[in-house]
Amino acid sequence: MLTRGHYIGQIIDDLAGIAVAAKLRASVHLYEIHTHVEEFAKEVLNRVLKLNLTNLNAERSNNPGLDLGDERNKWAFQVTADKSGAKVKETLEKIDDEQRKKYSNIRILVIGDKQGSYSTFSGEPFQTFGFTAEMVWDFNDICTRVMSLSIDEVIGLADYISRETRRVRLELETPNAEGKFPTTIDDWIEALPQPKQSDCAKMQAHFLKKTNLDYDQEILKGALNTLSTKLAKLPRLTREVFKFLVERRDDWTAPHSNNSFTFSDQRLRRLYRGDDLNGDLSLLFDAGLVSFDNSHIHRAADYWTIHFPAADYQFNQTFVEYVSDLNIALRKPLVTLDFSDF
C-alpha cells in the first residue's frame, strides 16, 4: 500500500524537475512564463492553500503586477522565472491602488529556486506593502505547506502534478541557437514509412514458370503500388490489423465480389485483444481496404470484406499465393511495406 510519504515524495520530485527546467531557462535570461505554467501554478496553489485563485491575465490582458488573484480571500501571486530582487521591486511598483485594496496577501512565486537571501527589501515600494523576503516563494515553500494536507488531498495533488509535469516541463524547455526546442511534435508522430516498391518482374516470372500464365506486369505493378500507397498512409498498428485480417481470413470468399477475402466480425472480436479495434477498422474502411457486410443468411455472422486493388483480376488471390509459394511473411509487405521480393 502506498503511503502518505510516497505521495509527498512524488510531489517533491515532480516539482523539483520543473524547477530544474525553469532554472535552465532563466540561465539564458528567458523569464517569460507560458500561460499553461501559470495555470499549473494556480491549480497547485489552490489545492495547497485552499484558495480560489483565477488567472487575472485572462480577465485583463497584461494585468499590472499580478498574475493570479482570489479577491474573496485577498490572496494574489506574481508567477515568474526571474528570482531577482529587481523583479520583486518591479512587480510591486506595477500594483495599482485598486489591486492593493483587493489583495492584502501578495506573494511572488518563483518557478525555479528563489535567491538564498534578499537584502534589498527596504524603502519603497516594500514598505507600503509590508513586503519581506519570506513573501518570495518557490516550490520548496509549497512543499512545506503540503505537509498539512489530508491524505486524500495529498493523493489528489500528486495525481494532478504527475499528469501535468511533462507538459509544464515542455513549456519550460530552452531553444538552441537555431531556435529549435529539444522536444518537438515529431517525437510523438510516427515516422512516414518508406515503401520499397517493385516492378513485379519477379512475380510475373514466378507464375509464368509455375502455371505458364503470363500475367500482365503493368497490372501487377499498378495493383501493388496502389496497395502500398493506401497502406503507407495508415499507422503501423492499423497495418498490423490489415495483415492479421488477410492472414487469418475466413476459408470462404465474399459472393459477388470477385472472390474477395472475408473475416467474420464475431470471430474477429473474439480473437483480437487490442485497445481500439473499431478505430483501426474505421481507418481501413476509409482507406477502401475493408467494408462491412450484414449477412443475409439466417443466424450467419456479419463479416468484413477485405479489398485488394485490381479486384477484377483477383489480385488478392494472386498476392497470397505468391507470398505462400515464396514463404514470404505477410508482415514484410503489408506492415513494413517492403515489396522488394515482388
**What's the helix count?**
15
Terminus-to-terminus distance: 57 Å
The side-by-side strand order for the widest beta sheet comes to 1-2-3-4-5
Principal-axis shape equals elongated
**Percentage of helical residues?**
40-55%
Largest sheet: 5 strands, mixed
Taking pLDDT < 50 over at least 5 consecutive residues as the criterion, the unreliable ranges are none
Overview of this structure, please?
With 342 residues, the protein is an alpha/beta fold. The chain has 15 helices and eight strands. The strands form two sheets. A five-stranded mixed beta sheet has the order 1-2-3-4-5. Strand 4, helix 6 and strand 5 (136-137) form a beta-alpha-beta unit. Helix 1 packs antiparallel against helix 7 and helix 2 (35-49) runs antiparallel to helix 8 (151-171). The protein is elongated. The mean pLDDT is 86.
Topology overview:
Blueprint: H1 4-27, H2 35-49, E1 54-55, H3 56-59, E2 68-70, E3 75-80, H4 85-94, H5 97-102, E4 105-110, H6 126-129, E5 136-137, H7 139-146, H8 151-171, H9 201-211, H10 217-232, H11 236-247, E6 261-264, H12 265-271, H13 277-286, E7 290-293, E8 303-306, H14 315-325, H15 331-334
Parallel strand pairs: 3-4, 4-5
Antiparallel strand pairs: 1-2, 2-3, 6-8, 7-8
